[in-house]
Every structure is written in structure tokens, then in C-alpha cells.
């Protein structure tokens, strides 16, 4: 009947979803069947993911999908860098650690000293972030690594539990910082130079790979029959970027959620000294593209503040928007904002106090300060991307849950002096679903982005006139004073 149905599982740091996608006549309809919360579980000084709880929610979502007619495939995407280790029987060895864990303190510095920034960046093109898988492995007890038979990234682990196949999908593998973007293989030599074993690295597969049918056990638990497990671009950011409704190349994107991933799509990795100095990342995108981007702290700081205030604060954004411009700013990428903690509002206040600014007091004032700062940082990164690529980036596509934040969109347009096109909010699910649909032969005459344009709506924010140079300069000086080493 020309209709194909697929299930996407999108695991984000603050919540997960199971969605049904129906592709009909070149348009995709997305129905979210199940939503569930996610977050770090602090235990005895360590931070973990509740991977079994996530699995239970995924299975529940699949069961809900089983009443929706014939479904061709299912695929999982998640946040990057985290992994599970399996023994030879395929059993999980220990817990899945959370990338915001304090155990990683100082590890990156040690490995960088040992291998040199030049060597690591030339080999991988990946931004130096203390939680990259490379440093997580370096923080593992050697005996745990010796015992490990297979390393699977989080979405790969769920694919294994769904169908029994062990493989790492490329887009997410590229975030480990031991993947070679030039050859498309694991960079075993880099790991060896860091004194780390490589025997547990499984085969790499592309987005759109059929890993096999659901296991009989999962079929029994969910009621699904005849469904294939097909890898999407398993890195959530890769799925989101695949679903940016853009044409041509004069555009940048912000994949907006817990993180703001600010970048462009390029044909080849950019491994230059300039890219390294700007600490830009080159992550593997769909169809051999490269996502040249930078991690900006994103809505995380506001999420943690909301958790601390323990209230819904429906009107918080409106309250923040009603405040006058020109208030205090923080450097959102200061590492002190990375770890979770109910003291996040106090961290924001302390930053303002230590830099001689007025100290925001009320929740709306604090949110305003964070959003202003985020928009400044996004504008700064967009300028850097323009310099590195030599492209004129006139349009910024904001996709993902954060695209619903109208005030941040307006600030981003005003401060960057660029047109902001917001939407789709469900870019990650859409990108995940359309890669599966294409792999199953359901996308014959149109490209993924054509289907996205035909299926979704967006909202445009035109930059207000007026010179923002003073405030941009104030932000720049602030980040220099705070002594961040990267731009
Ligand atoms: C966003 C994201 C981002 C990574 C981070 C760990 O969800 O995948 O691209 O850097 O999580």
C-alpha cells in the first residue's frame, strides 16, 4: 500500500521516547507512543545510567507499538560517548557509567600529556572533552578492561539486547575519540599508544544496517512480529542533523537539548591547527558527511536549576524574557557547570559575583542570565565556524526539543545577526525514522531532507537591528578573564 512503518527509540540525557513513524506518499507522520524520564543515578560517589530501567521502558514502548499494524523496523539512538562492557557470554560487566561522573577528573589531562594534543587531534578530529570514551577507558580499572570481551556504545547495547547482534554504528563510534575519520576504522594504534587494550572493539557498521530480526524473547515480550533491527544514525546529534530541513550550504545548525551542538555539515573532516585551537569536533554524519561542530553547554544548566527549584515554573521563560537586556553573563562552558548538582543556581550566582557583575537572585533572573550567556556563546561559535569553513552562514537551523524555546531562538537571532529557523522539534526521531525507512527501501524518489521539509513546520526569527557589539565584547572578555583555554 506504499506505507511503511518504523519505530524510533530516542534516549536523551533527561528523557526517552518511543515513537512510531508512518511514511506515506513522501510524508512522514510521527506519533510518540511512550515517554519516560532519564537521568544520572548517583551511588556511593559514582554516577551511573539506569540502563536496565531504560531497557524496560523501551520494551514497554515496543509493546504499545505492536497494535499499530505492520512495522518494518526499529532503531535506537542516544547521547554519545557512554558504553557498556560485555563478557564473552554477552553479559553486562558492571554498570554503565555516566559521562558527567566525577571519576574522570584529571584523566584527560594525563592522556593529553602522554600522547600530545596534536597527535590525538590529527588521529581523530574530536573536540577535547574530559568525558570522551578515550578518557573513560583510561579511567577504567585495567582488570575490568582485560575481562571485557566486547565494548558496545549505549544504542549498540540496546540493539544487541533487541536482536543479539554485536556491532558499533559509525556515527556514535566517532564520538569516542579513538575512531579514525579518514579511514572510517577504529584508531587502535591511538589506544595502544595510550596503553589501552583494543581486543573488545567490535565491527563497525553504517547507519541503515539491518542487524537482524528481534529475538524470540523480545517478540514474546512485545507482541511484535517480523520486525527488523535497523541501525539509524545512532548518535542523537547525527540523527537530528540528518533531519535539518535545509538546502544548499549557507547554513549552520544548533541541535538543541541538554547540549547545544552548534555546527555545519562538511564533506571532509577539518583537522587543521585552527580547528584544533578552536577545539571543534569532526563527528561522522550520515552518508559519509562530517559534522563539524562544537559542544556548547546547552539547556543543561537551566534543567539542573529547575531540578533544584523543584517546581514546574511554567512561566519561567516568559518571566526571564520580560527582564531588561544587558544583565550579568556567565561562561556556560566553564567546566564547573558540567557536573550535576542541586547547587547549580548558586554556581551561576558565584560566577557572577566572582566576575564583579550583579548577582541574579530570582529564578527568572537566573534563567535570563543563563539563556543570554548561551546565546552569546552560540553566536561566538557560529562566527568561528564561518572563519574555519570560509562559508557565509546566514541561516541557523535550530532543531530538537530546545527549538521550542522561543526566547532563546530570538536571542540567538539577535546576538548572532542571523536568521534563525526553528524546527522540527522532533528532528532526532525524524532522522532516525527516515534512515530506517530508506534502508528498508521506502524512500525511493526523495531525499531525507525533502521528506523532512514536506512533513514538518518551522518558525523563523529575524534578527532585530541594533549593534550587539558591546555585549558580545563583554562576553568575550568574561570568558578570557575566566581563563578558558579554548575559544
Ligand atoms: C547530545 C549528545 C552530544 C554529546 C553528548 C554527550 O545528546 O549526544 O552530541 O556530545 O550528548
UniProtKB/TrEMBL annotation:
Residue numbers spanned by region Disordered: 455-487
Record domain Carbohydrate kinase FGGY N-terminal: where: 7-241
Domain Carbohydrate kinase FGGY C-terminal positions: 252-440
Domain of life: Bacteria
Keyword ATP-binding applies: yes
Gene3D superfamilies recorded: 3.30.420.40
Pfam families on file: FGGY_C, FGGY_N
Protein name: Rhamnulokinase
Amino acid at each position: 500500500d506504499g506505507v511503511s512503518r518504523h519505530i524510533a527509540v530516542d534516549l536523551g540525557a533527561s528523557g526517552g521516547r518511543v515513537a512510531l513513524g508512518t511514511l506515506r506518499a513522501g510524508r512522514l507522520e510521527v506519533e510518540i507512543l511512550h515517554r519516560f524520564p532519564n537521568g544520572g543515578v548517583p551511588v556511593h560517589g559514582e554516577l551511573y545510567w539506569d540502563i536496565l530501567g531504560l531497557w524496560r521502558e523501551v520494551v514497554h514502548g515496543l509493546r504499545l507499538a505492536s497494535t499499530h499494524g505492520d512495522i518494518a523496523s526499529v532503531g535506537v539512538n542516544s547521547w554519545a560517548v557512554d558504553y557498556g562492557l560485555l563478557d564473552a557470554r554477552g553479559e553486562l560487566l558492571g554498570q554503565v557509567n555516566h559521562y558527567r561522573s566525577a571519576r574522570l577528573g584529571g584523566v584527560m589531562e594525563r592522556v593529553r600529556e602522554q600522547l600530545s594534543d596534536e597527535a590525538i587531534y590529527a588521529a581523530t578530529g574530536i573536540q577535547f572533552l574530559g568525558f570522551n570514551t578515550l578518557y573513560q577507558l583510561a579511567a577504567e580499572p585495567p582488570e575490568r578492561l582485560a575481562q571485557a570481551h566486547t565494548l558496545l556504545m549505549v544504542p549498540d547495547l540496546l540493539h544487541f539486547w533487541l536482536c543479539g547482534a554485536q556491532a558499533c554504528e559509525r556515527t556514535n563510534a566517532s564520538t569516542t575519540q579513538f575512531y579514525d575519520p579518514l579511514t572510517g576504522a577504529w584508531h587502535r594504534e591511538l589506544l595502544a599508544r595510550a596503553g589501552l587494550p583494543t581486543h573488545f572493539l567490535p565491527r563497525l557498521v553504517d547507519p541503515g544496517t539491518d542487524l537482524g530480526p528481534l529475538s524470540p524473547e523480545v517478540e514474546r515480550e512485545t507482541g511484535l512480529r517480523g520486525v527488523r533491527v535497523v541501525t539509524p544514525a545512532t548518535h542523537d546529534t547525527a540523527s537530528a542533523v540528518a533531519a535539518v530541513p535545509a538546502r544548499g550550504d549557507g547554513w549552520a545548525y544548533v541541535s538543541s537539548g541538554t547540549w547545544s551542538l552548534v555546527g555545519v555539515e562538511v564533506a571532509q573532516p577539518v583537522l587543521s591547527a585552527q580547528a584544533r585551537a578552536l577545539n571543534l569536533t569532526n563527528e561522522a554524519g550520515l552518508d559519509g558527511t562530517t559534522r563539524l561542530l562544537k559542544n556548547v553547554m546547552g539547556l543543561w544548566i537551566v534543567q539542573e536549576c529547575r531540578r533544584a527549584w523543584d517546581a514546574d515554573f511554567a512561566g519561567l521563560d516568559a518571566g526571564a524574557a520580560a527582564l531588561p537586556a544587558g544583565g550579568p553573563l556567565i561562561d556556560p562552558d566553564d567546566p564547573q557547570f558540567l557536573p550535576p548538582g542541586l547547587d547549580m543556581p548558586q554556581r551561576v550566582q558565584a560566577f557572577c559575583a566572582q566576575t564583579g557583575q550583579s548577582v541574579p537572585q530570582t529564578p527568572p533572573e537566573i534563567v535570563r542570565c543563563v539563556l543570554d550567556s548561551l546565546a552569546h556563546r552560540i553566536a561566538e561559535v557560529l562566527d568561528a565556524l564561518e572563519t574555519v569553513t570560509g562559508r557565509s552562514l546566514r541561516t541557523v537551523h535550530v532543531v530538537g526539543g530546545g527549538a521550542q524555546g522561543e526566547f532563546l531562538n530570538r536571542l540567538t537571532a539577535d546576538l548572532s545577526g542571523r536568521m534563525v529557523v526553528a524546527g522540527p522539534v522532533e528532528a532526532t526521531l525524524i532522522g532516525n525514522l527516515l534512515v530506517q525507512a530508506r534502508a528498508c527501501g521506502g524512500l525511493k524518489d526523495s531525499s531525507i531532507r525533502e521528506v523532512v521539509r514536506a512533513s514538518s513546520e518551522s518558525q523563523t526569527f529575524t534578527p532585530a537591528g541594533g549593534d550587539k557589539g558591546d555585549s558580545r565584547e563583554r562576553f568575550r572578555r568574561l570568558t578570557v578573564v575566566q581563563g578558558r583555554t579554548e575559544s
